[in-house]
Write a structure and sequence with these properties.
Number of domains: 1
CATH architecture: 3-Layer(aba) Sandwich
Structural class: alpha/beta
Number of strands: 8
Strand content: 5-15%
Enzyme class: hydrolase
CATH class: Alpha Beta
CATH superfamily: Alpha/Beta hydrolase fold, catalytic domain
Radius of gyration: 21 Å
Helix content: 40-55%
GO biological process, one term: receptor-mediated endocytosis
Keywords: Disulfide bond, Glycoprotein, Hydrolase, Signal
Largest sheet: 6 strands, parallel
Low-confidence stretches: 11-26
Number of helices: 13
Distance between the termini: 45 Å
CATH topology: Rossmann fold
Strand order of the largest sheet: 2-1-3-4-5-8
EC number: 3.1.2.22
GO molecular function, one term: palmitoyl-(protein) hydrolase activity
Oligomer: single chain
Shape: globular
Length: about 300
């Protein structure tokens, strides 16, 4: 074999190896990151701890369930008392330093963990999220707190009163997580000017172009709405819909909102590129079965 033939054989061999490696990388399943909601923790066996084990068993990948703080107790309290901005900053650093996530991952946010994960996508360019799934996430916020998981009715009522009368005070915005995504449709200007979290990640005061660009990097943004939800008010918030401004009776879908029409987050562009997926699940807040999970979400996780 002459020199030219040898060189050609080497080139063909290198190309074949590169193609095989590319196929291997493409076919490898990505890890999964979970972020719990209000009244939950990373690891309760009857909630996210069980979900983590189920996904590890069924899909066979590394699954990380985000824990805020150094204990289950601290993690539980974080859902009420650690500001989302602080949580996102902490989780950004933690996930960025996890070598198992270096090649990217899929993410699932449960209830308020959904908008926290979206905030992470927009604010933390050092992580690579492929598909973002939000289950019952309050993307346009809430106006009402009808049920509080894991809390007594007396405590729940106290939270309602605080939010109804003092949600936009500096004290409440710094003290209570739920105040940071309390969205009063009867006073849109006060909400936009005072919200210390949601109005910012929704680009409602000014357009942060990095938020738009980072959100566009998602392969798919999957939003799951629970059709009989008694916790998220209005339930359309789970699909980025909300009450029509100035009243709290009639709702509008995402495409009717200023957020979409003005494309303040780039959601119109994502919709045109078929990156937005809207799924429904019958039942109350976060009530889904393993079968539903397999049939509807595994396609975005494998």
């Amino acid at each position: 074999m002459d020199m030219a033939q040898t060189r050609l054989s080497m080139i063909i061999c290198c190309v074949a190896i590169c193609l095989l490696n590319a196929h291997k990388v493409h076919s490898e399943k990505l890890p999964i990151v979970l972020w719990h909601g209000m009244g939950d923790t990373c690891c309760f066996p009857f909630s996210l701890g069980g979900v983590r084990k189920f996904l590890e068993s069924e899909i066979g990948v590394y699954v990380k369930s985000v824990e805020i703080g150094n204990s289950i107790a601290e993690d539980f309290k974080s859902g009420y008392l650690v500001h989302p901005n602080q949580q996102i900053e902490m989780v950004c650093a933690e996930l960025s330093n996890d070598a198992k996530l270096n090649n990217g991952f899929n993410a699932i946010g449960f209830s308020q963990g959904g908008q926290f994960l979206r905030g992470l996508v927009q604010r933390c360019p050092t992580v690579r999220i492929n598909n973002l799934i939000t289950l019952g996430g309050q993307h346009q916020g809430v106006f009402g707190l009808p049920n509080c998981p894991s809390l007594s009715s007396r405590t729940c009522e106290r939270f309602r009163q605080l939010l109804n009368y003092a949600a936009y005070t500096e004290l409440m915005q710094n003290f209570l997580v739920q105040a940071t995504y309390w969205h009063d449709p009867l006073n849109e200007e006060k909400y936009k000017n005072s919200s210390s979290f949601l109005a910012d990640i929704n680009n409602e005061r000014f357009i942060n172009q990095s938020y738009v660009e980072n959100l566009q990097k998602l392969n798919k943004f999957i939003m799951v709405q629970f059709n009989k939800d008694t916790i998220v008010q209005p339930l359309e918030s789970q699909w980025f819909g909300y009450y029509k401004p100035g009243q709290d009776k009639e709702t509008q879908g995402l495409k009717e909102t200023e957020l979409f029409i003005e494309d303040r987050l780039g959601l119109k562009k994502m919709d045109n590129e078929n990156k937005l997926v809207f799924l429904q699940c019958e039942g109350n807040h976060l009530q889904f079965t393993k079968e539903w999970l397999r049939e509807n979400l595994f396609i975005y996780l494998t």
